[in-house]
Amino acid sequence: MSDSYDRAVEAVLFAATEPLTRDAIRAHAGDGDVSGALDRLSIRYRGRGFELVERGGRWHFQTAADLAHLLRRGRDEIRRLSRAGIETLAIIAYHEPVTRAEIEAIRGVQTARGTLDVLMEAGWIRPAGRREVPGRPLMFATTPEFLSHFGLKTRRDLPGIDDLRAAGLLDPVDLAFDQLAVENAVEED
């Protein structure tokens, strides 16, 4: 039974135009052990030309990362995200759901409307309802496409402060402020 069900799940995922949740897979393949089928298929395709991966609770086949260069036909147009865009995306990812005012409070500067528009066009953020406060500001959150693009299973896979520091990705000014905060805390004790 499991072999035929695994084949049905495999066919559904192969034909899907977008990543699917377990419920969506079950809706197409019928009742069965979707989780078990996904586990067996993940093992079966591990190390092959394409792999079965989960991103944000959705499953899909993707080309193995070490072979992706073979599928590029021309020169990719590299669009760089502005510093404001990177900061805004990071704030949303680490603090979601978050309003524009909260983003601006964390960044310390106003956020241009275009910055949020660029992130939404990229499919990395989405409106996530309205905060129940006066004015009912719109909140923003990341999308499954954000997780997929950055190779994350969940937001918990985002690097922590120690990871960023070890990778040399923190601004020297940030490191100086952190050190100053530690010294001030020691003096107060």
TrEMBL record:
Q: Which keywords describe this protein according to UniProt?
A: Cell cycle, Cell division, Chromosome partition, Cytoplasm
Q: Which domain of life is it from?
A: Bacteria
**Which Pfam family, any one, appears in the UniProt record?**
SMC_ScpB
The record's section on InterPro entries has: ScpB_csome_segregation, WH-like_DNA-bd_sf, WH_DNA-bd_sf
Q: Which SUPFAM superfamilies match?
A: Winged helix' DNA-binding domain
Which NCBIfam families would you find in this protein's record?
A: SMC-Scp complex subunit ScpB (TIGR00281)
Q: What is this protein called?
A: Segregation and condensation protein B
